[in-house]
Structure formats: C-alpha cells, structure tokens
Fold each of these.
Amino acid sequence: MSVLSGKVQTVLGLVDPDQLGRTMTHEHLVMSFECSYTAPPPGDEAVAENPFQIQHMHWLRQHPYSCRENLFLSQELSALRDELLAYRKAGGGTIVENTTTGIDRDLPALRQLAKDTGVHIIAGAGYYIDCTHTEATKKMSVEKLTDNIVSEVLHGTDGTDIRCGVIGEIGTGWPITESEKKVLRATAHAQSQLGCPVIIHPGRDPAAPAEIIRILQEAGGDISKTVMSHLDRTIFDEGELLEFANMGSYLEYDLFGTEMLNYPFNLKVDMPSDSQRVRTLAFLVKEGYEDKVLMAHDIHTKNRLTKFGGHGYSHILKNIVPKMLTRGITQHQVDKILIDNPKRWLTFK
Ligand SMILES: CCC(=O)NCCS(=O)(=O)O
C-alpha cells in the first residue's frame, strides 16, 4: 500500500477522489504540436501565414496543422486561464493534461493555472510518439525508461518537484516502432509498481488499439486502469468496436469539437461529426459499457480556443451533454461518464 493509494495526484498535490467533479480525461493546456506540422494545400500558403482573422477561421478548422503558429498552445497562457475559469463556471472540476515528453510539457505553467483557476489539473508522465523520441530516449533500456516514468510520478518532473498523476498520453504510431514498444513495456512496469492510471494514444489503424493492449498485458499492465484514446478516428466498425471493448480498457471519445473533411494524418479516415460521436456513445451505453466510456476535446491547437472562435473546453458540458440526453443516454449515465468513470480511473490502487 503506497502513500498514493486511494488518492488522485494533481499538480498541486494529492486530493480525495470525491473532489474531482466533472472531468475531461484528455486535454492539453500548455504544449506545442510542431512535430505534426503538415504543408498547406498548394495555393493556400498565404492564408497559413496570416491565420487568425475571421475570414480564415473555416480554413483553420479544415487545416489546423498547416499553420505553424496554430501549433503553439504554450503561447496562450492568459487565454487558457480564461478558458479554465469558464470551464469551472460551466460545471467542470478537473482536467487531465496529457502532454508528455516530446511535445513541450510545462509543469510550472500547469501549477500556476491550477492555482489561478481552482480547476484540478493532473499532469502526464512518459513519452509521446516515436518521431519525438530523442536519440538518448531511443537508446534507453526498458528498465531505465521505467525508472524515469516512476520518478515523474513519485518525485517530480522536468527538474521540478511537481508530480504527474497519470502515465500518458503514451504515443504510438502504426506500425508501432521498437522505441514505442519499449516505452509501452516501461509503462506497464511502472503501472504495476505504482497502481496508477495509464492513457494511450494509438496509431491510426483499427488494429492498433488491440495490439497495444496485448503489449501492455504481456508486460504486466493493468488494462482495467488503462484508457484507449482517440477511438473516434480509429475504430469505425461496430463489431470491431465491441470486440475491442471486451478487452477491458476504458473507451475514450476525445475529439469532440473537431470536424474536418480531410483528416491529414490518414486520408482514408472520415473524421466523424459530434452527432456521430454521440451516436457511438449511445451505442456503447446500450451495449452495457456505460462504466467504461470517457469523453474529452483533446484541444491541441490554438484555433479551438474561444479566443480564436473555437469551441473551448466547455463545449461538452454546454452543448454535447444536452444532445446526449436527447439520444437515449440518461443523466445518471452522463454522470457516470463525466464523474464516476474518471474518478475510478484516476484513483491510485
Ligand atoms: C498531442 C495531441 C494529439 O496527439 N492529438 C491526437 C490527434 S489525432 O491523432 O487524433 O488526430
């Protein structure tokens, strides 16, 4: 039994799980997503260089990764403070901040945002996808990676005494690289030492989530305390979704607010609309998975902030929940998805 057992670890210290309230389990507040820059379509270069004007907002929603300036959420601390205050006003209590090594995690900024706004913020330990692994990271043994992750939870992160409360988002692509497999095994080893929550970013292929669960399971991970993120752009077939759900992880729909015609990271994927996401949640609830579903917006670009005409961190609470209630999901089930499931996942064993 560790000192963390039965508690949730925020950037301001340990809290009782009952204090969390409504929780978005997959957001970013301070990060950069430069690693995913994608060249704009031919002819659109001038728009990409001059993005934040009302007449360009539709273009930005369609091509969020083709404008470098849009990829630096870390430049928007004042807007983020306003966002979190609005989130609290809308009934939000907690945000899990999924920024890991490789995409510019900033623990002191998260601590300041938590102090300024009263929102509980839980930071993420570990490593993002392969292209952000340094040469030094790629050379590390699973044991060394495990030690690093454990230390980020027990002692502090990035040279501070601020501790992470989850492992992840742990990044993987498709196919999963050797370096990513080592990080997954280290994640499982760290989780079995700490009894902590884990959250995974899968590659963009329907086979990726199950393959990741197998790797974690073989390395001793606790799948019942693991979240599979981004299912909205990964598994589309209902039969395949139920087969994956049977493996026992939490099932996260975390791209609420993103609607784009051409998903640049996998042109074969049709990104669903929010209405289609709600329909999938209703399907999972009907099939008996109401204790496994989680929701979030995964905000990781500036154009999604209300300052730039975006939906902000309160979109689910303000717009999506009312829609869920008209689509066969009860208030009790909504509370499970937004309060009880996050609380159970985030509590250390
Ligand atoms: C760091 C943010 C992130 O990885 N978001 C996932 C975007 S997507 O792969 O679902 O498009």
Amino acid sequence: MAAREIGFFRIIGHGIDLDLVERTYQYAQYFFAQPDAFKRRYYIGLSTNHRGYVPFTEKGDYPDEVSRSYEAFDLGLDLPDDDPDYLAGNRLLGPNVWPDVAGFKQVVSSYYNQISVLGRLISTALETHLGLPPGTMTQHMSKPISQLRLLHYVRDQEIEDTSVNMGAHTDYECLTLLHTRNAGLQVMTAQDRWIDVPVDHSAYVVNIGDMLEAWTNGQLRSTPHRVLNLSPERFSMPYFVAANHDTMIQPFPQLLGQEPAGYKPFRAGAHLERMLVRDFPYLRDPRRGELSKNHPGIENPFEQRMNQSSK
Ligand SMILES: O=C(O)CCC(=O)C(=O)O
Ligand SMILES: [Fe+2]
C-alpha cells in the first residue's frame, strides 16, 4: 500500500464539494490580492494562538529555500473566545482570525468543516487498515490542533523553475489532505529521489505526518516533500489532521509485536510548537517566553532520512 512504501497517496470519490473547493480558492486569491497593509491587519504574529496572515517575509529556517516566495493564511478549529484552553494561554487553540472580506468566513469555514470530516474518515479507514480497534486514533481527535493553510506561491522573476520555494520537510501531524491547483510539489521516494506529484483537481493528495509515523512505530512513513517554482503563481490548500494538544504520541501497543518502540513518547502540541518555532520567526521573539528559547538549530527527528541523503 502506498502509505507504507512512499507515505503519499491520492484519493478520489472523497465527497468534498469541488465547487466549494473552487470558491475557497477564489476567496484565498481575493484576500492575497489585497494591499500588504490590509493583509497585515491579520498578521499571525498579532494572534496568541497562531492564526492569521503569514507574509512573504515570515521566512523559516530552511537552508534549501533559496527562492522562497510564498504567503499563507492559517486557521484551525474555530473555538469561542471563552474557551478554557485559549484563556489559559494555549498557543494553538482558540478562535480564528477572520479578514474583513464579505463571505470569506462563511466559505472558508464550511471548507474547514468538510475537510475535517474527511480527515476523520481517512483516519478511521487507516485504523481498519492497521487492524486497530475503531477509535484508536480518532478518540484523540476530539479537540484537535488541526490546521488549514491557504497558500499562495509567487515565483520571483528571473528565477529558475527548478529552484526550491518551500524547503524540504515532513509534516508534523498525523495526515495531510492537500488540494492543489498547480504543479510544483515533489515527494521523496524510498530511494531518496525527488518525484513530481501530478495535479488533478478532482483528487486529494494525502500524506502521512510525524505523529502517525510514531503511532504506527514506523509502519507508515512521514515523507519528505518540497515545492519547486514550477508555476509562476501557485495556489494550494493543505489541511493537517492532528491529534489533541495534550495527546501523548507513542507507538500503539497493538503495532509493536516483538519489535521495540522506535519512538520516544512526545506530546502532539509540544512537537508542533517546537517545529513552528523553526518555521515562524515571530515565535522566536523573546517576549514569547519559553517557546523562543528553542531556537536556533531546531531539528525534526522525523526528517533524518532527508538530512542523510543528497538533494
Ligand atoms: O503547497 C503544497 O503543495 C505543499 C505545502 C506543504 O507541504 C505544507 O504546507 O506543508
Ligand atoms: Fe508539507
């Protein structure tokens, strides 16, 4: 099965309304076309729970990102502003930031709702595939730190189309459900070769992330991928299916058999927060306290394979 060998597969017949996908892109496109001053009113660094606009300048720590040029809009489970975790200062849970664009919230949140249902469905299917009792994974997804990203890549002029825009990484969560409009995504094969992922508007690209690799004791692999500047402009929408903030991720005992656990237990939220410090300079601000102390040289243990091989 593709999830085991390569960690990426595509699904069709997923039940997501393709019109809604199109309308979500239209709102993303409209928002990104606004002046910088407008977009910066929703700057992610103004939020305490990692929501909002990510400008081109918010560049993470990736040596291979020689031609990085993308902006994003990040959102998650839209909790009320009296949510106890939010009030307690949780860095990933709380209300979304919504731009003052008529219809944006309605369309994007209805996309979030549909895609999160699909995320649950695929998680349930994977439980069956792995021979796990129903709910083994999904019971840990009652208040997940799952995020939706609206992404807009722009290739700088005079740049080669083989240059790297989004640097090689694994995704930090359980699964990613990606819809993309344009070419550019590449995936690392088991033989450490980069291959292009074809674009198909009716399909979702699904990949395994770090949390699921650990849960399955490496049976499913969190696969490195990157985005090249193949298109002058590119839109995509990854949805990251995660566990709850405080879920302790460690190999499921049913999957261990005779093998020892190859992964040390870690909290879902702690892993994500640590990796976000690598990706978001705003989180390295000393005023953010403990979080900022993680920097520099943050490495993701799930990316070892990538670091060992040449590009
Ligand atoms: O834009 C894409 O196709 C992939 C994006 C991605 O890998 C990510 O945001 O983690
Ligand atoms: Fe990714």
